[in-house]
Amino acid sequence: MPHKSKKKVKPSGIDELQTPDDREEAIRLSAYYRWKKRGEKHGEDREDWLEAEDALDDSFADSHDD
Question: For residues 49 and 27, what is the distance between their CA atoms, to the nearest angstrom?
């Protein structure tokens, strides 16, 4: 039986953000879903964006902690 490598697998998605445009699109989608979750209330779009940006940055940092 072949020996299986115990290579650490990173979560898919976060490392696929290759360009600033990819990053912005990921933030845009996350902010949109935050807005939907809040009941589509207007007036807090900046807060949704900043929270989405922070979440993405945290995910990126977590995926690179070895």
Answer: 7
Within-domain flag for 5:
no
Domain limits at 27? 19-35+43-63
Provide the H-helix boundaries in 5-65. 20-37, 45-63
Contacts of 8 (CB under 8 A, 6+ apart): 66
Count of domains observed in the chain: 1
Give the integer Cα–Cα distance in Å for 32 and 48: 8
How does pLDDT run across 2-61, given as a tens digit for each residue? 555 444 434 445 556 679 999 999 999 999 999 999 999 889 889 999 999 999 988 877
Asked whether residue 59 is assigned to any structural domain, the reply reads yes
What's the pTM value of the predicted model, to 2 decimals?
A: 0.65
